[in-house]
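Let us work through a complete example step by step.
Step 1: write down the sequence.
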Amino acid sequence: MTDHIKILKTEISKYLGSKNIYFHNKGRASLYAILKAMGVGLGDEVIIPAYTCVVVPNPIIYLGAKPVYIEIDKDNLCMDLSYLEQKINDKTKVIICQNTYGLSANVDKIVEIAKKYNLYSIEDCTHGFGGQYEGKPNGTYCDAAFYSMQWNKPFSSGIGGFMIINNDNLIESINKIEKEKLKANLSTKLNLKILFFAKKCFLNQTTYWTLLKLYRWLSKNNIVTGSSSGQEISDIKIPKKFFMDYSQTQAKEGVKNIKNLSEFLKLRKENAVIYTDFLKNHKKTYVKEDLFANHSFLKYPIFVKNRKRFFELARKHKIELGDWFNSPIHPIQNNFEKWGMFPEKYPIANFASKHVVNIPCDTKNIEKILSFLEKYLNEII
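Step 2: predict the structure and record it as tokens.
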């Protein structure tokens, strides 16, 4: 029988140059394993950006530690380094930096600060696989990195995640933790096959918004295997099947999709240039050209005046918009204190979460999106 996991590992190695690759059912499980191997536990603190997904603080909390949020830089939507060192204390154990929308920013400086204080560093590359920072692959700067293979990530295996370990001192602990993984059961594999079939046969511009809404509802209510289960976005207790292994079913889909990654990376960059020129010419907020070298443009963020109205317009015109991040810890909308988050403390992150929408960069129908943006220029900041 074909070992699709082995093939996928080989394909990923071509981008990262690493053989220390470990697969999990989701990227958040990879983060959990990394943190556990680093000895993160009760009373420890882990620094993360205040503009992220709730599945990042969740593993920190599952291990008894505390997420410490850092305000973001308005120009790159990544961690603002001017706040970093003042948040470090004797409880700090790890710093996590994030490739926001595919952009890596100040990774070398973050690693330098981590080493200065004898801390571990982790790259959140869930948006950034295939991209680079200062000529090196995303994920190769820090002690470890984790990646996502969810539906809308750089390449997809439906759901799934993996990590790479760059600090050899962590390998022994990682290997022990890997033995704790639960095996993917038959129902999970069958569930995924049905989702693959539905995506291939039914997902298009006409059905996008309807199917997206349906998928998120099914995922939230644990009816299908989705990006986030209901418990992950309503509670801070670790779900029963959280630390789960990756399957051959997922890997087979991943192998198929990673073969198109180089083509899509090129297309994303080309479209990003077009978006930037358009927004710049119309005196709107745009991604600065000096960030392009370190940006893989999984999504292109634009700022709009009224997020809800803009999504309604996109649905009307069958434009596929993304909603990352609709809160400082997406997709949480209330009870932020459970996660130790108080949005009012992070005005830039809070503003971004209320005004940023994502336009697709891997589209071959960019003229339709540009026509839409031009029609509603007054809605864009």
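Step 3: interpret the result. The chain has a mean pLDDT of 93.
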